[in-house]
Design a protein that fits this description.
174 residues, mainly alpha, two-stranded antiparallel ribbon, 6 helices, 68% helix
Length: 174
């Protein structure tokens, strides 16, 4: 039972399925083209805003790290050995105990202080651009900057939708 005969034409399930698939594909492509043409500028602005927001969040994270480092420095400021240890490391100061061979073990707060001093630099405040653009972000930005291309894309999308409605719509079998 491959087909049913009517007065003017035969009903072929494969032909019907092919028409449905072609209609769906061409209409979807046409509507996507029109949607992309109409939404290129808002999408470009949205992606730009999202990039700026991510950069500002990165800067905020850097400021929070710097704040934590400063808190660690302030927490160790009351320790009597802090100034001496900073002088030993940064100014090549040699205390009398070290000259006599008497060494004092480091306290547990010293590694945190060393880490805080080493990380407290001005370059931590710089916002670093680690975010790579999305694959279609450059295309959207370029399309948003070219209104003629937007108009052509919308026109070709509309033509594709009209073609699919005209040639792949339901066929009358009566």
């Amino acid at each position: 039972m491959t087909g049913r005969k009517t007065q003017n034409s035969t009903y072929d399930p494969l032909d019907h399925f092919l028409r449905i698939v072609l209609f769906a594909v061409m209409t979807s492509i046409g509507m996507a083209g029109m949607g992309l043409a109409f939404l290129a500028q808002p999408l470009s602005q949205y992606m730009s805003d999202r990039q700026k927001l991510a950069d500002h969040e990165q800067g905020l994270d850097n400021l929070e790290k710097l704040y934590d480092q400063q808190e660690a420095l302030l927490a160790n400021a009351e320790s009597p050995a802090v100034a001496e240890r900073i002088a030993i490391n940064h100014f090549r100061y040699q205390p009398i105990q070290a000259a006599l061979g008497q060494t004092e073990p480091l306290h547990s707060t010293w590694p945190e202080l060393t880490h805080a001093v080493s990380m407290a630099a001005i370059d931590t405040l710089e916002i670093k651009d680690r975010h790579e653009p999305l694959p279609f972000q450059n295309f959207i930005t370029t399309l948003a900057a070219q209104p003629n291309s937007q108009n052509l894309l919308a026109l070709f999308g509309a033509i594709l939708v009209l073609i699919s409605l005209t040639f792949f719509s339901r066929k009358s079998y009566a």
